[in-house]
Amino acid sequence: MLSNLKQAWKIKDVRRKILYTLMMIVIFRIGCTIPVPGVNRDIIKGMVDGNGLLSLYNMFTGGAFSNFTLFALGISPYITASIIIQLLTIGFPALEELQKSGEEGKKKINKYTKYTALGLAIVQAIGITLGIVRRALQTDSVFFIVTVIVTLISASMLLMWMGDKITEKGLGNGSSIIIFIGIISRIPKDITQSISQFESGSVGLWVLIVMAVVSLLTVAAVTYIQEATRKIPVQYAKRVVGRKTYGGQNSHIPMKVNQSGVIPVIFASSLLAFPQTIAIFMGKDAQAFVTKFLSPTGEPGFWIYLVIEVVLIIFFSYFYTTISFNTEDITNNMKNSGGFIPGIRPGNPTMDYLNRILSRLTLAGALFLAVIAVIPSIIGKFTGVHLSLAGTSLLIVVGVALELKRQLESNLVMRSYQGFLK
């Protein structure tokens, strides 16, 4: 990896992408340190510490919510909007056609997603300000409340724009990078907190060792599964044109065990955090209900939360895989180029075979993601040690890091070919 970075730094275009991404990350972190004026952050921190869903939300914002800084709303409105629009493509043929109509269709889908994100940001900003933060405001004037709401909405839209620009001009997926940076920025505080718990005697040394070992094993397992690929053999028929023979080569179709990456985990976490916002508008009884039954700190909410998280991860794994891996297109491309899978007839039998393999691989990958996401929470419940970098957060961090590595390598390979052609 270090050698790849050294090589990448020597290539002007790749170096520009790295520097652009770093610049956006620095702006994001600066925004996470500038507080919204007139808000008592100690009260906000107390509310976050006592609420499991708010703690999860705070993790994705890199601590910006508990400190109530400019980016307190985070990029969650955009993530939730992406989920809504992608789900709507199933029920609305017009959206499905747009999704399949090339670059122009994707631009329109992206525009609809942004409008939806703006609407969600308005709802969340009003809900958070009136339902949670109002108790921490130093003044209760209408003008000040509106100012806080507008600040949160504007900062969230800025963050959405930054994510788009990272995707367009930088390295990796912008939204994933922002969430990634938000999570890893919590590591120093997490380590300090664990040391304090050990020094105070509230947590034993063996518990910390077990958690560290579990984290390391999780990193190794996630890396292995994310890179695991099943290769479907493909042969091409020989064609004789004049005196030359074409085709006859052997190739393969790479099918990843976890085709959807960390998208299902991000989507599941975003959806699970959304009920808290809705409950804010429905009064204290609704908030108490959500905290009790849909919170990782409530009883029996802890187990209900985990079950829903597992179901959502499995659902989004299948959903996103069907979008990113089109077996019909692959089958048609193979048929047109004279390719076939040994022992399988071309056409529909090939598509059915690929769908069957894809379904099994997706189930294995989805179950793996679900298990890794919930096991640290279960361990934390019985040991009392809750690490920010565990389970869901660890899946996201490792997944995004691997995706960055792959994109960096593909940029290097592409530039190597360009140099060869010149």
UniProtKB/TrEMBL annotation:
Gene3D superfamilies: SecY subunit domain. Keywords: Cell membrane, Membrane, Protein transport, Translocation, Transmembrane, Transmembrane helix, Transport. InterPro entries: SecY, SecY/SEC61-alpha, SecY_CS, SecY_dom_sf. It is a multi-pass membrane protein. The chain crosses the membrane at residues 20-39, 115-137, 143-163, 170-188, 203-225, 261-282, 302-320, 361-379, 385-404. It is found in: Cell membrane; Membrane. Its main location: membrane. The keyword Cell membrane applies. Component of the Sec protein translocase complex. Heterotrimer consisting of SecY, SecE and SecG subunits. The heterotrimers can form oligomers, although 1 heterotrimer is thought to be able to translocate proteins. Interacts with the ribosome. Interacts with SecDF, and other proteins may be involved. Interacts with SecA. The central subunit of the protein translocation channel SecYEG. Consists of two halves formed by TMs 1-5 and 6-10. These two domains form a lateral gate at the front which open onto the bilayer between TMs 2 and 7, and are clamped together by SecE at the back. The channel is closed by both a pore ring composed of hydrophobic SecY resides and a short helix (helix 2A) on the extracellular side of the membrane which forms a plug. The plug probably moves laterally to allow the channel to open. The ring and the pore may move independently. Belongs to the SecY/SEC61-alpha family. This is Protein translocase subunit SecY. The gene is secY.
